[in-house]
Every structure is written in C-alpha cells, then in structure tokens.
C-alpha cells in the first residue's frame, strides 16, 4: 500500500525543528551556514521534518553532526544499499578493531549511523516498508556475524580450536535468527531473537587447557551477547533475546545439533513450531546451519494436514488477549485486536496446516506468504489484499511510534505532541483522521482473523442470548416495596424470597455500589436484571445468588468484568453452574476476578493441558516478562496457578477428569511452578554472587534439587494441599562462588532455598503460590534449611527414625539438577532397600499410627483397629480414623520398607496405587487385597476432594464407607500390624 502524501509540518512541531537546527549549527561551528547552504533545498526540508518527528535523530545529530554530513557527502543518506553493501561497510569499520571494548564502540556507532540513515529515508518516503525492514535486518545480520567472527578468532587463541569428536573437523557456532529477524522483517527498534547451536560434541585443541565444545561455545555466546546487547555511553547495538531457545531462560545457552533435534522431537510445543517457521541462519557456519534447519523441518511442517494448528494458535491468541486485558493494552497495535499479530497468525495457520504438503508455503516473509495464499486459492484475493494493506499500515505506524525515541513500543501514544507526530509521519493532517483509518484497518484485520482462527464457541448461540431481565429492572433500579419484591422472587423460584431480597438490597445500598462511577453504575444496572434472569433458571437459585453476589460486589468498581459477562452469555452460565456446584470455586473467582477469563472457552476450561503443555505454557508466559521484573514474574506465576487450578476443579465437577487425573494435574501444576521458581531464584543468586562449585571444581548448574514428600511426592495433591519440600545440594561448602560478591557454597544454597520459599509464599494481590512445609528435612525444624546430599545420606542411614523412612517412600525430585536427581534416587534406594527386623518395623509403624489416630482421629477411632465401634460413630475422618487413608498409606510404606531389599521394584514409584500394583506383581499381596485397598483409597480421596470443593473438612457422616473400613482394618491385622 502507499501512504498518503507527506503532510505539511504542524505548527506545534515547529519548535522541534528550530531546536534541532540551532543545536546542529552550534555543533558545527562557524562553517555550519556554508555547509547547510550547500545542501539541496529538499534535503534541508527533510532535515526539519525528520528532526520534528524523531528525538532519536535529533539527539544523534547533535552528538555527532559530522556523521550526518558524511552520510550526505557520500550519498548514503538518500539511497538504498546494494546487497552485501551493509556488511562491506561494517567490515571496513572493524578493520582496525583491536579489543572487545573497541568492538563494542564500533558496533554501536555503526548501528547509530545507519539507524539515522534508515529513519531518515523512512520518514522522507525515500524507502518503502520492505526496504526499511530489509536494511534493518541486513544491519543486524552484519553486526551479529562480524562480531561473532571477530570474537571467535580471539576465543580460539585463548582456549583452542573446538573440534568434533566424530568428524574431527573444526566447529563453528550456528546462530539462528528467529521472528522478524529471521524473516528480514525487523522494525526500527526491535529485539533480535536468537538461538545458538553447534554441530557436535568434542573439545578444543591447541591450548594449554582444553575446553569441551559446550563450554567453549557457551562462553563465546556470552561474549557475543555482551558485544551486542550491553548498554554503554553509545547505547546498544541490538537488544538480544535468547528466550526462544529450548527450555527458555532455564535452558543451556548453547545446544549441540543432536540436543536440538532431540528436544524438538520429544518436547517441542506448538508455539515453538510457530516460532521456528521464520528461523534463518544469520551468523556462524552457514552450511552447518542449513543442515540444522533441514533436521528441524519435520518438526515444523508435518507431512499430513495438521488442523490442530488452528487450535494451538487460538490458544496462543487467547493468552495474549488475557494479557492485553489485564495490562490495559488495547491500544497496542501489535497484540491488541486487529493488530499485527493477528495477520501473522492467519498466515502461519495456513503454513502449519498445509506447509508439510505444499512446499510453496515454506517461506518466511509474511507478505510473500499472503501472496501465496491468494495465488494457491487458500484465501480469496480480496481478503488477502485487505490483510496486506492493513498489515502494511500497522507496520508503518509501528515504525512511526518507534522513530520518535528509538524505543521498542507498539502502544499508541498518550501525549498530544506524540499523537501529532505519528499522524504527521503517516501523512495525515490530524490525529483524528489517522485514528479513524487505523480503526478501519484493525476492524478489517480482526474480522478476517475471526473467519480463520477465532473459536466458534465465541459466536456459538446454542444457549441463546442473555435474557434481558426486563421483569427485574424495576426491582433492582427502584425503591421497592420489600413484601412485593420478596413475593416476586418467591414466585420466580426462590425458596426464601425475603432473604434473596435482603441480599440484593445489601449489594445495591452498599458502599461499593454507592461510590461507583456513572459508567460503572450503568453497567451494573444493566447486568443485575440479566443476572437474575439466569439465576432463576438454576436448580437452587437461593444458593447461586448467595455465592455469586460476592463476586459482583468484588468487581463492581472494575466494571469491565461485568461487560465481559454481559457480552459472553456462555461464560456467565458457566459461572453460575460452577458457583452452584462449589462454594470454593465461587470464593476463588470472587477473590481473583481475572479468573473470569478462563470461563470464555469451554474447550479450554474443561480440558486442562498435559504436563509438558503446562510447563511450556508457563515458560511462554514468563518469556514475555523482562527478566528483571520480579513483581510481574510473581504475578504471572500466581495467575497461572490459579487459572489452571480452576480448570482442574471445573473439569472435576463436570466429570471430564477422574480422581486420579485431578491429582495428576494438580501435581504437574506444582512441578511446573517449582521448576520456574527454582530458575528465577537461581538467576537471582548467580547474578549477585556467581556460580558455586562442586568438590571436583565443576560448576553447579544448578547442583540443587527440590524434593517433594507427602502428597506432592506421591502425585496425590488435592485442591488445597500444601507442599512438603526438602532442599538438597551437591556443592562444596569450602569453595566460594565465582562472582563479584563471593560467598561460600553452603551460604549460597541456604540463600537460594530462602529465595525459593520467598517466591512461593509471599502474599501478593494474587495470593501466595503455595504454603510450604519444610519440617521433613533432616532433624526437622532444627535442621539446616538446605543440606548436602552427603549429609542427607548420612542422616538417613544413621539417625533417621522409621517414620522418616516411611516418608522417604513417597519422596521424589520435583525440580533441579538431573545429575543430583540420579544421585538422590540412588541414596533413596540404598536407604529404603536395606534389610530390616520385621518385628521391630511392625512395632514402630503400629506405634506411630496409634499416636496419630489418638491425636488426630475422631473419638470413635481411639479404640484402634480391633474395635467395631466406628459403626455407631457420628463421624468418619477420611484421613486419620481407623480404616482410613493413613492406614492404607502406612501399610504401603510398611510393605516397601519390609520387602524392597528383596523386591527393589517396589521403590520405582512413589504413589500408593502403583506401589500396590507392585506388591501384587511381586506376589506379596493377593489381587483381591490390592483391589480392595486401591478402591477404598480412591473412594476416600474422591470424597476428600468433594469436601474440599464444598469448603468442608475431610470428615463425613459415620454411616459411610463401612465396607471399605472393614476391609482396610482386616488387611492391616493380616500384615501383623497392631
């Protein structure tokens, strides 16, 4: 598309021109008038226009006026560069570079020089969108590759030449450019997303001390990032983002080709397929890079028609929409409705679905993909034309926003002067005229996006529209006669009309509603009658109204949520159904109204993701947050946990998740959170103190594990479960870390543990992540917060009580170092697998169980397992009473301790159900006994889950579970336990 002709410079921007000209003249001195007079009139006019629009250009010109003069005198200022010319110019600039400090200066000055030239040509309409993006991408390519080549040579001099074990050939890094860089679509102030790889393992040769290739390239990658990204007096060359690599920020900086292929084959997620579409080798070994991309192509482009891609992209879009709503980013022309991202999603949906078969779709630049979609008949040409024109308008707008201050932003400006600048740069006489055109294109893009990708559930009308609630308008909006209002409510189906009337009156006359802004009050007045129209359709309207009104009161002053529910009748119906089913869910949504977003899509709400998708989704969310923004990271973690816990609860209520899967999902959720929390805490500590080391001198990376006990260890978490954790490290306490503020390793890991607990337990506006119980660590509350594996092994072998070994049966590593995980599993197997005196074991297990039953069970349980008094008891404590959950757990733990020295397979799993399966397979229990215990255990836990969702303790009436209790107590006695 072509923009409107250049607009006249607004009067309000004239002072910017005057200041820029005056600064330029002062910097040049006496010769300035003569130099400027020699310029063509068009160049002088463009100088004023560019300086009026761009503070960045004004600042660069004032700092280095000779730079602009040289650009003009050499003819570079007003012409496009030929292919390869950008690289040749930088090569010449680096010819005399003799140090990394000099490299940083030269890269930044080169970037600033050409950034000025590119902005100049863009604002003067001397370059179209494609030319601007191409030159920005060429500049990034040149900076990354030439900086790499310079650093690689010096790195080899210092550490030797990396060589492959198999091939024996010299190894080079392969730098993949992702996103806009990969597609040659960089904007004026874009990050560059990179992934580092190298062909094969090996070590360096030719130096006094060899390094393995991994360490060589990690160090080299760190130096390359610093050369490009570090902010100096000259600014930066390019902001580098490495978070698209496997495992994100928590993964290694560099991967071998085999590791990359294995990761994408086994763990690659749909969003990574989307990202990998645009991957391109931008630096390093081009031939090896082509081989790598060929290896990864089957991951990106499936051989079959892959319509699951639309659902994946839809999920990504919903995540973005939620973030946009939470952060008030509707004015974001990239992420908001009808933004740049929606055009990208449309194109990439067709690429992911059909690209495996239609090779013409296997290309990177978006506009080329759109042209192919029209040519191949995937989309009507008229639709493609609108998408292309709208996309180009948005990209021009993006460049205008970023040209002002060389700042990475896609948000529409708030200041009046910047609004005028944007309108002026795009050729409009006023902001109003520009904004109307912008809204037109965003509307068209959003319409086309919905035709391709939007969830049909959003427009599904199977439940009809919301009732208008006309019959309730008078009751809500006018002073009512209480008797008449109570009667109307009773006639509509409320059992207790006066109480329902009183609840509505308390809301209407409460402080929250009385102090609402006019617009919010109008929204509430429109919403309540409609709400009542749906409440009376419920089986128990009294209960539903009681549970939903606290939410209405909580969001009264954030009325956007009322609009969300008004405009999404499916979401409101789901809300009422869930409130009717569970007061716990009603309370959660009232406390955290942002959870209402989860109700928009029934497919997502009632289908929680599997463990790998959970981890990938959380990592993707955290990747969009700057690494130094701890507050946002903590909020993101908490919202993620709340949202997925709601989805699990909703699925349990709807019957789409059986009991065992509920606990699986809740445990997977905790594991995903713990892995990210560990990496956040690790990065924080390393940034301050450096990396600790093991006794053999190797760096701990991280040399730390989080061990889960109890329910989380046994994969049996419930809705309100806390986490029983133990922290273990394998650092050398006598060796200090290698940072600017070194501390010994013991202190480092203690502080790391404290940091993890802080991240998990700190109360924010979204609550805390988890309650944490550390009392199962060696020596309990009196012991060290974090201990070494050697100390853990010594304690477990020499000092631990039998009950601590029982707890160890359910212990497993949840997050941390793979090497230390294997060592922990070895220690656990040795400790639990030793031969024991069975009489002493039975006595100790029985005594501990009796103490627990006496202290924690109901009165009917105090007589022990030989008493049938429970049949007349009023209550049954599902967990602690005789024949309950703990009896089954103790039997399983007893069996593991008694027989694992003969049957080590009993230690393979930590959950009771699979250990019981192992007992049957080993012939230690009959199939009937195992089935009785498993069925009872599942029944108890299902009842406990129901109690939790009803906000009730784990105690049920005493007339339940008699058969199960008898069976458990009988098997308890048959095992010789007392």
TrEMBL record:
GO biological process: regulation of glutamine family amino acid metabolic process
Positions of region (Adenylyl transferase): 469-978
Stretch list, region Adenylyl removase: 1-457
Enzymatic reactions: [glutamine synthetase]-O(4)-(5'-adenylyl)-L-tyrosine + phosphate = [glutamine synthetase]-L-tyrosine + ADP; [glutamine synthetase]-L-tyrosine + ATP = [glutamine synthetase]-O(4)-(5'-adenylyl)-L-tyrosine + diphosphate
Gene of this entry: glnE
InterPro entries for this protein: GlnE (IPR023057), GlnE_rpt_dom (IPR005190), NT_sf (IPR043519), PII_UdlTrfase/GS_AdlTrfase (IPR013546)
Cofactor names: Mg(2+)
Biological function: Involved in the regulation of glutamine synthetase GlnA, a key enzyme in the process to assimilate ammonia. When cellular nitrogen levels are high, the C-terminal adenylyl transferase (AT) inactivates GlnA by covalent transfer of an adenylyl group from ATP to specific tyrosine residue of GlnA, thus reducing its activity. Conversely, when nitrogen levels are low, the N-terminal adenylyl removase (AR) activates GlnA by removing the adenylyl group by phosphorolysis, increasing its activity.
Enzyme Commission number(s) of this protein: 2.7.7.89, 2.7.7.42
Iron is among the record's keywords: no
All residue ranges annotated as the PII-uridylyltransferase/Glutamine-synthetase adenylyltransferase domain in the record: 315-452, 866-946
Any one GO molecular function term: [glutamate-ammonia-ligase] adenylyltransferase activity
Record field: transmembrane: none
Record's GO cellular component terms: cytosol
Official protein name in the record: Bifunctional glutamine synthetase adenylyltransferase/adenylyl-removing enzyme
Keywords: ATP-binding, Ligase, Magnesium, Multifunctional enzyme, Nucleotide-binding, Nucleotidyltransferase, Transferase
Annotated Pfam families: GlnD_UR_UTase (PF08335), GlnE (PF03710)
NCBIfam families: PRK11072.1
Sequence similarity: Belongs to the GlnE family.
Domain Glutamate-ammonia ligase adenylyltransferase repeated: 47-294, 573-826
